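Question (not urgent): is this output format expected?
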Amino acid sequence: MTNQNNKQTIGLFGFGVVGEGLYHVLQHSHTTRASVKKICILNPEKERNLPKEKFTFDADDILDDKDINLVVELINDAEEAFHIVSRALKKGKSVVSGNKAMLAAHLPELIELQQKTGAALLYDASACGSIPVIRNLEEYYDNDLLLSITGILNGSSNFVLSKIFNEKKSYPEAVKEAQELGFAETDPSLDMGGWDSLFKLIILALHGFGTWVDPEEIFVSGISNLKEGDIRFAREKGYRLKLVAQATKVNGKSFNLMVMPKMVSEEEYIYNVENEYNGVIIEGAFYEKQFMFGKGAGAFPTGSSVLSDITARMHGYRYEYKKKKYFRVPRHSNNVMVKIYLRFNNLSDLNRFEFESIEEKLISRDYNYVVGYISLSRLIRIRKQAQAMDIFIAFFDFPVRGDFSQTLTEQATAQVQA
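Got this back:
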């Protein structure tokens, strides 16, 4: 275990945008007693800005090096990342990781490994770039009063939506610009499909509520099918569309998770979160709403977040997973109603959704939609089918319990009184 008296000798996996950003940040952070001894990379042909002897293509050169006391994992491959991180922990080396897909899939195993080996795993950089959401959930909100976590967790999709609503660009034009500026990958499906936000939400929910949720149990819908009619509907109703991840406690014993575009009204904090920025609202039974805002994409913001984890380990910090340890954790449940907008082409697609009630409906030659309440559990059952349909879904507000007559405020009041 490292402490403030020990110099950190780092073995770095990955030297892409974030890895190179971290290296740059470390060179200019004179108060940090940390240096990178070796960098493991995949592509030997790619030109680098550092001497060749700094690099290796063999993971064992880092994992078996007794001088290296901290492993920093910043690669894209989730399964390979899990292999690296778990091996490092087993060898007693603490780890800093930014791989949200790996963490979302393997957190229960990684928590158990930390308990067995005494090594620590930190990953604030995996969610929301430069915003320290995870550590705040661990330390400041280390009680069972948390009611909800709501946020724009993906800077790439938010950049695209900002260009659409502020500059009236088409979806393909906005995606292309995001790619040219380095905010979106060549294949943007992870960001635009909501999957990146899903992985981050699972991590935040574990620290917020103490429960890990299988990704298969969460409804996800992105912005890839966004069309002019959907944009026009939002504008005419006074909304902006934002891709939102949300964790909501619906009573004292359960909570739900979902990732969908949201019809955001002007009164909401995230209405003015634009471009590659992220915004997270944390709501509690007594402290009400608190808002965190910052860059969610880019080499230096994410590199700075990794540096914060490195510095935290220098001082011996580790996650305690306090919600799991000290409180009766709520169970995950999809037994709630959510109000959604559904744009569809075929009536056969609409029939699959089985709305509980419909407030508004339009059927025309070129544009069809309904606004109504539907069970989140129903959305989960048809999730894979929905992903193949030519539809667009957005939600309006917090989910409510099965009878959908009780608002979140009423639920919170009941929880506190209980």
